[in-house]
Every structure is written in structure tokens, then in C-alpha cells.
Amino acid sequence: MKQRKKLYLFGGLLFLAVLLTGCVQTDASGHPTGDGWVYNLLVRPMSAAIHFFANNLHLGYGLAIIVITLIVRLCILPLGLSQSKKMMLQQEKMQAIQPEMQRIQEKMRLAQTEEEKQKLTIAYGALMKENNISLFGGMGCLPLIIQMPFFTALYFSARYTPGIDQSVFLGFSLGKASMLFALIAMGAYFLQSYLSSLSVPKEQRKQMMMPMMVSPIMIGMMSFNAPAGVTLYWIIGGIFSCIQTLIINFYHKPRIKKQVAEQLKKNPPKTTIDVDEIIPQDMIDRHRERQERQQVQAQGQTEDHRRNAGKQRHRHDTHDVVNQNNEPTSDESTSNEDHRRNAGKQNHPH
């Protein structure tokens, strides 16, 4: 089951990579050649819109980039919200069946034959299917694939629209890299990652923090070398993502929790396969008792080791003190040496 899940994910990512490879064709220097369906359908209209807002409405190229970014993000917002709601719905359902999932996983660790492992794997899949839980946790590839060409088009429009590289926004040249803009962009995406982690259960939050930091770090690294016009687009996109995440966390999440609670009240989590027939529960209980005894023994051994180390240290310190007390002082050493010389003279024959 896990191998099949990985295969699906790899296939989806491979399809996405192939799809986006021909989106915008570029020359050796990285400039678009004017070919590719994304360039013709999206980049050209966005570039023309930037020109319109900058020159016809006299907003300037900086504000034009902001306006176009907001318009495009608002257009694809329903896709992002739909995907996030599905993911959150799946997470809430997963939390509801978590005890049963842990039972099956614990039995999998104790399975001794391939037949037992296979039966438990089937039981795990049946549990997910019967409770309408996706193996991907609601992470559908289709919404992401639909959004990616728009993000690609925004990037190329902000970078290669004629006139942007010669314009200034808030005192910063949009054609040159800006350290301040790069830091703001990275901070916006760090904030978005943090807000996203708040919707994740605490036990999973630590595991997901590292993958969630990848996007801010990549944005920061690219922003330090990218023109400020592109970084401005990333800043607005990051701020928009923060607002979108807040809407999901504080508006949609309470409603989804209530919806799942009502569904579970009517239809409690269920499974048609009795895993106790595969591996009896008393075997699990004995395994837990054995683990608890081992933990107690390990703690006792650690405590005994500490006590023995303390006793040895105490004896060593006491021995040093006794030796120091028995060592003669310099005056005593001189007196003893004189006494030995006098005794030697008396014993020497005249």
C-alpha cells in the first residue's frame, strides 16, 4: 500500500514536471522565445495588463505588478480553498480513526508471517476506504497542476515585461536585486508556513516543520539574485497566502470540525475486518507489558549506575583528603631531615 502511494505521488510529480517543461520556452540566456502555450495564453495577456496599469492608468510598474498579482490570485483562490478544505476534512477524519489505525500498525510490527502482514495491510486499506479517507490525505494533484501555469506566467511577466527593469518602486530599482525585498519575501513565506502548521495536529507538527521550511528557504535563495520586480511578486503572493491560510484556519476549520463531528455521530468509524482474529489483542497487551518492564529495568540500571558513580567519586575525594592530611608540611619535612642527619652522626664511629 505504501509502495503504491509512493508510485502515485512519483507519477503525479513526473506528469507535473513534463507538463511544465514546455510551458514557456526560453533561449540560452533564459529569456522567453515567445513560444509555448503558457506564454501565448497567459504571459502575453499579463504583460499587456501590466503595461496598461503602469502607463495608461499611470500606476507605475510596481503597483501594476501588485494589481496583476492580486487579480490572478483572486481568480485561482477558489481552487486553493477547495484543496485546503479537502485536506482539512481528511485530517479530521484521520484523527477520528487514529486509535484503530494505531492498533493495526502495532499489530503490523508484531506480525511474524507474510500472511499476517498481508491481512493487516488489507485491513488498513479497508479501514481507510470504509471511512471515505483518501490515501493522499486530500492532496489532489489537479488543483495544483491548474494553478502552476498561472504562477509561472506571473513570474515571467514580472521579470521580462519591457519597462519593468528601468522603473523604480519605493526607491528600489525593479531591475536589480534588493536585499530588503528578499528578506521580506522570505519572512512572508515563513509566516505562511507557521500559520499552516497551526492546522496540523501537534503530534504531526514536528514531522511537517522541515518540509514546510523548504518553500521559504527556496524563495529566499532565489530572491537574493532575482530582480526586485520578481521579488515584489513573491512578496504579494506570500502575503496573499498568509491571508488565505488565516481564512482556512479561523473560518473553514471550525465548520469542518463541526461537519465531521456530526457525520461521526450519525456514522461512527467502522471496519468490517476484525484484526483481533489475525493477531489476538492479548498478544499486544503482553508486548506492552514486556516493553514497560524493560523500560523500568533500564531506568533502574541507569539509577544504579548513577549511585555507583557517586559512591566511587565520594571514595576518591575522601582518599585525596586523607592523603593531603598525611602529607608533611615543609617545616616538618625539614625537621625530619635534620633528625635523620643527627642520628647518622651519632651512629658513625669515632
Automatic annotation (TrEMBL):
It is found in: Cell membrane. Its main location: membrane. One of its GO terms (molecular function) is membrane insertase activity. One of its GO terms (biological process) is protein insertion into membrane. It holds the Pfam family 60KD_IMP. Residues 61-249 form the Membrane insertase YidC/Oxa/ALB C-terminal domain. Keywords: Cell membrane, Chaperone, Lipoprotein, Membrane, Palmitate, Protein transport, Signal, Transmembrane, Transmembrane helix, Transport. CDD domains: 5TM_YidC_Alb3. InterPro entries: YidC/ALB3/OXA1/COX18 (IPR001708), YidC/Oxa/ALB_C (IPR028055), YidC/YidC1/YidC2_Firmicutes (IPR023060), YidC_ALB_C (IPR047196). It is a multi-pass membrane protein. Residues 288-350 are annotated as: Disordered. GO terms for cellular component: plasma membrane. The chain crosses the membrane at residues 61-81, 135-157, 177-196, 208-226. Residues 321-333 have a biased composition (Polar residues). Belongs to the OXA1/ALB3/YidC family. Type 2 subfamily. Required for the insertion and/or proper folding and/or complex formation of integral membrane proteins into the membrane. Involved in integration of membrane proteins that insert both dependently and independently of the Sec translocase complex, as well as at least some lipoproteins. This is Membrane protein insertase YidC. It comes from Catellicoccus marimammalium M35/04/3.
